[in-house]
Design brief:
By secondary structure, the protein is an alpha/beta fold. The chain has 2 helices and 10 strands, in the order H-E-E-E-E-E-E-E-E-E-H-E. It is globular, with a radius of gyration of 17 Å.
Amino acid sequence: MKFYRTIGLIALTLTLAACASTPDVAVIRAPNPENPNVTASKPIPPTATNPTGTCIADAGKVGRPYTVRGVRYVPSRDPNYNKTGLASYYGKNHHGNQTASGETFNMNAMSAAHTTLPLPSCVLVTNLENGKSVILRVNDRGPFVKGRIIDVSYAAAKELDFIGAGLARVRVEVVD
């Protein structure tokens, strides 16, 4: 009996460890011929879960409805998602915590939190005040503050140039 319990525990540990690996994302300052204000992002180094070095979304997953502070959110796939609103960012206080997707939050990665887009999704976020854009991987839920449409990582906020302001008026578009 003890033997089978030990084997089961080892199998569970290995399964959970395999699920926890996520690509680290860094900013590549390569010129983008289509839009010079867009900073491309790619994983360093490529991993088995992301060998192409691009923002990877999982078309098979959407997520279950959930409630935060009395507000019900229903995740859904919306390939035409294109909204304008306020962005905020999160960093040190959340660095190393688990995200809603089960990944570890890295404030230096190009990632974001959204209330209803599938996890993970890829979005183009444009700061409407300066025209700077980044492509981010949505891997967390939030923001849960009225009037805000996305929370971006510290690295993304730095690239979008709104660290000092704390908030920015942005456009968020789903990218394939």
